[in-house]
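lol ok so funny story. i was supposed to be doing the assay writeup but got distracted and ended up predicting the structure for this chain instead. priorities right. anyway since i did it might as well share w the group, maybe its usefull for someone
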Amino acid sequence: MQKIRLTKTQKKKLNTILNRHATYERFSASKIDAYNYTTTLGVRVCPYCNINFTYTVYEIENKVGTAGAHKTPVCRPDIDHFQLKSKNDELSLAQRNLIPSCQQCNSRVKLRTQFNPLTHIHPFREDFDSIKRFTVELNDPDLTKIESFRISFSNRSAPAMAIKRADQSIKDLKLEARYQYHREDVVDLLQKARYYHKRKVKELEDLAETAKLHRFLFSDLTTHINRVPLSKLKKDVLDLVHPMSTK
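and the output, tada:
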């Protein structure tokens, strides 16, 4: 859910791979090139939802009588056409239009919904994280029960048109409905944050003679959002109650 930033070297390699194929179907069917493509992208978590991993996996085998290791492709993320290729054939093999995504977003939710950079957040162009934040709508003060709250989104300080595009992406990717199934993760996080409150962390840091205890306690929240599933949800929710843990 953060903007995917590619270097010039990455873009050059991606385009070189795509230029070897006349059609998307031939590219997608090539285990060598399709796997090299997603490996080069290096996107570990779906940029649409931040729920599922999108890494590329090889099984490394050392074959007897051969020099070096042999890599067998195991699985890779789906490659979604941000804009439908059926609407514009020129975008079929356009690097800017090929988004690494999880199967749920690509093949179960988005399907043939018409996305456009003018109407939706484009992972290569915009940073969803700087436009929207997760929040919690309380029905009951007892946050130890998932029935006590609902996960939703609120706006950051962002241009109105960017917020509108983000709202459309949330709607079409069914993000609010999908995230309700991760309320248990929020409960676990809030219980941890309640125990390791600011004063408690300071006491333990003084005892252990370290100033980085909160980074160890909440280590999965100090990394890049695009590398850890649910990290945006956890960072945003924890920042509501325990700001020091996400710094």
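Strands lie at 57-61, 70-75, 78-81, 98-101, 132-138, 149-155. The longest strand covers residues 132-138.
back to the writeup now i swear
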